[in-house]
Design brief:
Layout lengths: L7 H8 L5 H4 L1 H33 L4 E2 L1 H11 L3 H10 L3 E2 L1 H15 L14 H9 L13 E3 L8 E3 L3 E8 L4 E2 L1 E3 L3 E6 L16 E5 L6 E10 L2 E9 L1 E3 L3 E6 L1 H25 L5 E6 L4 E6 L6 H17 L3 E6 L1 H4 L17 E6 L3 H6 L5 H4 L2 E3 L14 E10 L2 E8 H27 L6 H16 L3
Parallel strand pairs: 1-2
Antiparallel strand pairs: 3-4, 5-6, 5-8, 5-13, 7-12, 8-11, 9-10, 9-13, 10-11, 14-15, 15-20, 16-17, 17-18, 19-20
Helix pairs in contact: 3-4, 4-6, 8-9
Pfam family, one: tRNA-synt_2c
GO biological process, one term: alanyl-tRNA aminoacylation
Enzyme class: ligase
Length: 467
C-alpha cells in the first residue's frame, strides 16, 4: 500500500467505534486511496516534466512565466507555493503578476464571457470533404460506454476501461497540418476515443492525451465535438505531436462520473414529472453538466410547492431503491412501439437507436412493447453516458422551478455531493429559522424587532442566492 493507505488501519482502530462504517471494509478504503494516490503521482510527474522543460528553455532568464505557473495549478493541481519552492531550488522567481492575470483570464473564459483561441477550430463542410477525400475513417467512439461499477452498493466507484487512439488528422484554425508543438491550439481526430462529444444536452468530456512511449508530449483536451462522425478533440499541445502518434486517452473521470449522475437523474426527473403532472408533459430541452442538471418542459402554470415536493420525493424514492439502469441498442422501428417510451419531439434518432430503461431489461420491453412496463418505468431514447444503478445518483434535490418562456418551465436539480451539500444547508437554515422563531416569541415587548427584521432580510438574501 501507499503511504496514505498504510494509515487506514490506524484510523479504523482509533475512530472505528465512533464511525463503525470504516470497520466494514477497510481494504476497499485502502484500494480507493491507493488508486487516487497513483493517479495523483502520475499527474505530479507530468506537471514536473512541464516545469523542467520550461526551465530548460529559459536559458539565462531567471523568471518562470506566470502562465506556466497557473497551468501547473489549473491542470496538474500544483499549489502556487509548491511551484515557487521548486523554482527557488533552481534560483528562479515566479512572475506572480502574470500568474494572477492568467488566473483571471481562465475564470473569464470558464464563464463564457470571451472567446478562447480554440473557438475558431472546427470541421466545416470543406474540412469534412477533405477528410473523406483522404480516406480518413470516422472515429469509433463506442469506448465512451466502457465502464462498470465496482459493486452494486449505492456509493460504488466506477472503473473506466483504458483506451488508446492514433492521430489520424490534426486541424488548426483553417487547415490540416502534420505536426504541432507546445502552446499550439488544435483539434485532433483519432481512430478511436473514449471521450464523449457534446450531444443531447450532455456536455463534452475533458482530460489529457499522453503520447505512448514519451510522456513529455501531451494534449490537454478542453472540448469535444462530433462532426459528421469525426470526433474532434480540441485543446492545447505540450511538447510535439504528429499524425500517426499513438496516445493514451486519460479521461477526467471525476467530471464524467458527476455528469453521468446528472444525466441519469434527468431521465428520472422526466419520468417523475410525468407521474405528477400527467401525460401531456413533454421535454423541451435539457443541459447536463457536472455541477447540476437543467430540464425544460411545457406547462400551463407554475408548479405548486406540493407538486415540486412530490416530484422530488418520487425521484428520491427511485434513487433509494437502487434499481438497475439498462442500456441497449434497438432497431428504431421496434423501439418506437414501446408503450410509454419518451423522446424529444423534433429530435432525429439513428437506426439502431440507444434505449435507456430504469428497472426493466430492454429485451423485455422489445418482447412486449404494448405492456405497461414502459409507462411505470423511465424509458427513453438516449446516446448519453449513464449510471448502471439508480442508487449511484446518491441523492436528488430540486433547487429551482421557474418560467423561461410562455408555457415553458425550467427545473434545476442537484445530485450526488451537490445534493448532499444542499440538504445539509437546508438543515442548517431550518435550525436557524427555528432559533429565530423562538427569539421572536420571547421578545414580548418588541424591543429587538429591528434586529429580527435585519436577520430575516439576511436569511432571505441567502436563500435567493442559494444554488
Amino acid at each position: 500500500p501507499g503511504f496514505f493507505a498504510s494509515l487506514v488501519s490506524i484510523v479504523v482502530e482509533v475512530l472505528g467505534d465512533a464511525f463503525p462504517e470504516v470497520r466494514k471494509d477497510p481494504q476497499h478504503i485502502m484500494d480507493i486511496i491507493n488508486e487516487e494516490e497513483q493517479q495523483f503521482l502520475k499527474t505530479l510527474i507530468r506537471g514536473r516534466n512541464l516545469l523542467n522543460r520550461t526551465i530548460d528553455k529559459l536559458g539565462g532568464v531567471k523568471t518562470l512565466p506566470g502562465d506556466v505557473a497557473w497551468r501547473l495549478y489549473d491542470t496538474y493541481g500544483f499549489p502556487i507555493d509548491l511551484t515557487q519552492l521548486m523554482a527557488e531550488e533552481k534560483n528562479l522567481l515566479v512572475d506572480m503578476e502574470a500568474y494572477e492575470a492568467a488566473k483571471q483570464n481562465s475564470y473569464i473564459l470558464s464563464q463564457g464571457k470571451v472567446s478562447s483561441k480554440t473557438d475558431a477550430i472546427n470541421l466545416d463542410v470543406h474540412a469534412l470533404n477533405e477528410l473523406q477525400v483522404r480516406n480518413v475513417k470516422t472515429t469509433n467512439d463506442s469506448f465512451k460506454y466502457s465502464y462498470v461499477p465496482k459493486s452494486t452498493d449505492a456509493d460504488a466507484d466506477y472503473e473506466f476501461s483504458e483506451c488508446t487512439g492514433k492521430i489520424l488528422a490534426i486541424r488548426t484554425v483553417d487547415k490540416f497540418v502534420d505536426e504541432v508543438h507546445s502552446g499550439d491550439s488544435c483539434g485532433l481526430v483519432l481512430d478511436k476515443t473514449n471521450f464523449y462529444a457534446e450531444s443531447g444536452g450532455q456536455i463534452y468530456d475533458q482530460g489529457v492525451f499522453v503520447k505512448i512511449g514519451d510522456e513529455a508530449n501531451e494534449f490537454l483536451v478542453d472540448r469535444v465535438y462530433n462532426k459528421g462522425g469525426y470526433i474532434l478533440h480540441i485543446g492545447v499541445v505540450e511538447g510535439t505531436l504528429k499524425v500517426g502518434d499513438e496516445l493514451s486517452l486519460q479521461l477526467d473521470i471525476i467530471r464524467r462520473r458527476l455528469t453521468m449522475n446528472n444525466h441519469s437523474a434527468t431521465h428520472l426527473l422526466n419520468h417523475s414529472l410525468l407521474q405528477v403532472l400527467g401525460p401531456d408533459t413533454d421535454q423541451k430541452g435539457s443541459l447536463v453538466v457536472p455541477e447540476k442538471l437543467r430540464f425544460d418542459f411545457n406547462a400551463k402554470a407554475a408548479m405548486t410547492i406540493e407538486q415540486v415536493a412530490k416530484t422530488e420525493n418520487y425521484a428520491r424514492e427511485v434513487v433509494k431503491n437502487n434499481i438497475p439502469i439498462y442500456a441497449k441498442e434497438s432497431k428504431l422501428a421496434v423501439a418506437k412501439q414501446i408503450n410509454g417510451l419518451r423522446s424529444v419531439f423534433d429530435e432525429v434518432y439513428p437506426d439502431p437507436v440507444r434505449v435507456i430503461a430504469f428497472g426493466i431489461p430492454i429485451e423485455e420491453l422489445e418482447a412486449n412493447p404494448t405492456g405497461d412496463a414502459g409507462v411505470k418505468n423511465s424509458v427513453e431514447f438516449c446516446g448519453g453516458t449513464h449510471l448502471k444503478r439508480s442508487g449511484h445518483i446518491v441523492d436528488f434535490v430540486i433547487s429551482s422551478e421557474e418560467a423561461i418562456a410562455k408555457g415553458i418551465r425550467r427545473i434545476v436539480a442537484l445530485t450526488g455531493p451537490e445534493a448532499v451539500k444542499a440538504l445539509k444547508r437546508t438543515e442548517v437554515f431550518e435550525q436557524e429559522l427555528n432559533n429565530l422563531k423562538n427569539l421572536i416569541s420571547n421578545d414580548k415587548d418588541g424591543s429587538q424587532s429591528k434586529e429580527f427584521l435585519k436577520k430575516i432580510a439576511e436569511m432571505t438574501e441567502d436563500i435567493a442566492h442559494a444554488t
